[in-house]
Queue: 4 jobs
Job 1
Amino acid sequence: MTIVNNNAHALRVPAIPIRDYNVVKSYYTELPYNKTISIIFPTPIKSVDLGSRDIIADKASDVENVLKVKASKVGFNETNFSVITTDGKFYSFVANYNEQPALLALNLTMNTMALEGPARVGGSREDSEEFINGLNAKDGVIQFSGIRASASEVVYNCDQVNHKRRTIRHLGVSENLMEATIRGFYVKDNVMYVKLQLKNKSNINYDIDYMRFFIVDKTIAKRTTFQETEIVPFYVHNNGIRVIPGHQKMEQVLAFQKFTIPDNKRILVQINEAGGGRALTFLMNNEDIMNSGKL
């Protein structure tokens, strides 16, 4: 009797080797239960992923680039967490419990090139992993969905637009000692950049609740509550500034995926004050968008 091995001729799929440049290495962190570890990133935080419910993390109030992390359980088992920032950088952390960490704050704003040697937060672990987050293949750079420009390019372009002089003077509104004006439209690749200024001419702080953009019919009244389609910026430069003190101003650059609108439509801009009644509303035409400057 002949025994046939059905696996004898099975095809073996060769494994793809993992190279050193494929690996995004991690910071080693030690987290207490009764204290908070603060991590300062070079750019605003876009998302945070926690490996376990035994740790908690949150962005600092009114600050876009500071993450607060701590243990939610005493003596938790080793876990991890990761952070993605708006410039497309990916940061990886390994976390262990320690109620007496050596460090309570970590500043990553100087990490523009790959670091050499161990990178540790609040610990003495000798075999901690080296963190590499430079401008090379080890970055794990992420791009915004549907946007041809990289995240770091968008951030850089927003900063360039923010330093440009005003090119538009007819778009905006001034009411209740508050002024909102569009200062310029710019386009590069498939990204449109809108520079907006808010100026507080009163003695009372203006707390921004929201800023929204809608495509509406041209015949809709200026102060209507009817909206057709909302368009949302995928990145806002200076988004962390949510309060405009009295007699001061604030400028933001909003990055949208490129769009145009029919001539029978307009863009309705709505800015609302948190806990107040100083709502600002104005309209923009397709002609304003079509005259965007080139970066």
Job 2
Amino acid sequence: MNNSCQPRPVICCVLIAADLEAASSAYCDWLFQSVTRRFTLDEDSARAIGYPGLAGAAAAGLANRRGSEWLLIIEAPDATPRNPLNTHGWLAQEILVEDVDSLVASLSDSPFDVLRPPADLDVSDRIRASQVRGPAGEILYLTELKGPVPPFDLPRCDAPVDHLFIPVLSTPDREASLGDYQVLGASEGMRFDTRISVVNQELGLPLEQRHPVATLQLKGPALIEIDHISAATPAPSGLCLGTACIVLSANIDSGPGTMSPSQGPFQGLTLQPRTGSAGEHFALACSSQNSHTI
């Protein structure tokens, strides 16, 4: 991705939308993003995100007000709708915001459906968040950090709506999924039980019900959250609307199974596509010119 600011452990989220213009406009008009480029997805980039059939699709890169790209939207009108709250796979994008209460109040007539009002999280009263559903059916956790949250290393917010800093996964097996990402961790994953109200609401469970969760601190101010949701079902097969792939910074060696696109959104990167235990797609990426983390 073309980032003008300090690289992040979570490089970008790939979002599949039925209507590229409508999805892009929603993020620009309501979440303070801007389109930095429009392009046709190349074959290598399509393979890198786990969906080679998307080669030739219309796409756009979106950046926050600091000019830092973090969202890639790809148009696929025939993709299958998916509800991330009751199926396994990528559950949500947790996005850093400056003022969650003001932001959510402004979304009443927007393409973003507010599922849960802003509230302090069960894990810490320094984290305040609201959960919304976006124009492609994706779930966003709009999250304001009111101070340090030890032992986590979390980013500082520098824009009204900044960037994805915690990809959230729904899985039938917390330990297997944690193993998929452990290579990226700065330390061992933390395991605990916590309330996930938006999931409980969708599944008809008591709002106070707790679920087994793991968090993995990445090598930088970002986490991966892994939610063991026993009542969820496998996602529909094939290409679905919503969050399709997360691209993560890692040290990888070029060789079989890797690719270095000469054009497109991942030009200059070496990528290794992977599929996780919950069926989710993710890609590990590093600079093509050297072995250090980008």
Job 3
Amino acid sequence: MPLNILIVGASVAGPTAAMLLQGSDPSHNIIVVERHPHFRAAGQQVDLRTKVSMFCGRWVSSTLSSRTETGLEVLDAGPPRPTSTTEDESMRGDVVKVLYETSLKQDAILRRDAGKGEGGLTYEFGKTVTKLTQNDNDENNKNSIDVTFSDGRKKRHDLVIAADGQGSRTRRLAFGQETSDAAFKSLGVHATYYSIPRAEGEGEMARAYSAPESRMVITRTSGRPVTQVLLFTMKDTVEKLLAKSHKQPIKKQKEAFSEAFKDVGWQTDRVLAGMQTCDDFMRRRWRRLG
């Protein structure tokens, strides 16, 4: 039976779920909404291990750019220590872009084969969900969900999938703040990911600087004209500062990370200056499920 399906989030999970559901029944009417104006390409790399590569290889593996990273050099108080990085690792932006574009290609093919039949896949950016109401007591529409969107529009769906990450707003709307918070336990790690201009002669070796007081700075180019920066900290003295900034405007979040990393040394001046002007800033609080 064809369903009206809403998927919230257009990163890795959203387009993947859309392709699987549409492939199982092309008559499903699937809408993917994303609160950002475009799909988000920032974030930590994605490891496509053997079983995952076999599962999604027909969509992803043949299309992703070749990874040119030659290894990882660990820097601390001692001499540099070169190590290897996994060959199954892909840039998150590449994976998201391929999944998004491939889902649209699959939709075009299925629509063409189906003629003017029902079903299809649609993406709507710059929009999110503000209210969910399940119709348990409506005998004619039992188990359907009335959804209110940020633009004021309302629509009824048979299935709503929360693919909007650890901090899922959809999960909070469906189960409440207390239940949502109880599902994840903080690991005390704050992280941010963004891109800065690549330095001359930077090469293809990723570098991880282990700084004092449980802080780490990672740079990696992966064959790109920009350098990806990853900042991680478990520093107790900045926990409250970073936690407070989590729901503040991006400018305030950048200021908080700059304060937390201002004295770590190495390439701090470069990576923090680049953070102020980057347009792909993403931050996360690491949490454990359960």
Job 4
Amino acid sequence: MTAPVILVRMRIFGFGSYGGPEVAGFLDVPAPDPATVPDGSVLVASTVTSVNPADIKVRSGERQGSFPVRFPMAMGREAAGIVLAADPVTGIAPGMAVFGNTVSRTGSFAEKVYLDGVGATPVPEGVTPAQAACIPVSAGTAWDILNELRHDGLETGGTVLVLGAGGGVGHCAVQLARAIGMEVTGVAGADKHDFVESLGATHVAAGDDWMSTVNEIGPVDAVIDLVGGEVLVDALGMTAGPVRSVAAPSVGGGVTRRRSRTVFSELAGLIADGTFTPHISASFPFPRAADAVAAVENGHALGKTVVRF
């Protein structure tokens, strides 16, 4: 007699169609099989994931054509967890605590997650899983922007204007820019004054007068934009130096991401030695994933918001 096939299921917080918050929710889907891990992948039992504004843009359909989606799909793009199985070519073994970015067409708001083996990185001593889960998207994007700005001529001691300095990528960009010898002017809401200043930047309150305030502070040698819209357009006229925009790549110049173990290990090392710290302002249990997403979607999140399993 043939033994019955037992289909293992898991929960994800995801979406089955594009739209607003109403299309997202908990879904019961087939769990990945540790015995059949795709080439170049690492399967982990999730420990923590983080929320990024880009996750909301993917759910809403704003990234159609540039970001592959397979419905139903979990939200999220970065996670930390314990390895269940891995393609041997990755050099990652079961039982290891790792972090990284998810495999294309998969998400991280799930009990089990596929990480791309190229970026899957062991969590080093001195770094918490929650901090590690903030590296692939937020810290990694900030680091890649700064790498490109320096390549484009930004010199040590120059002044970087960060638009959206209090958010996930922004607060990492401020700290990392300061770590490599830059001066930083950070535009963010007035309620984020103390936070932005604590990171080493000169805070400028967002609003009608932000440009005049920046001009009073001094020349701008480069711009990191995380806001887009008219704010970015205005900022383009404030510098002859390089500009990189996450919010509007076609306007300010995009960012070439380096999602590799080498880059992620470098950033983890900077956290471990105290050079910078992902500031986690809110931590939600997985059953409250919707609240975590809402906290970021309302536009007022401070630093990073994470979801723990």
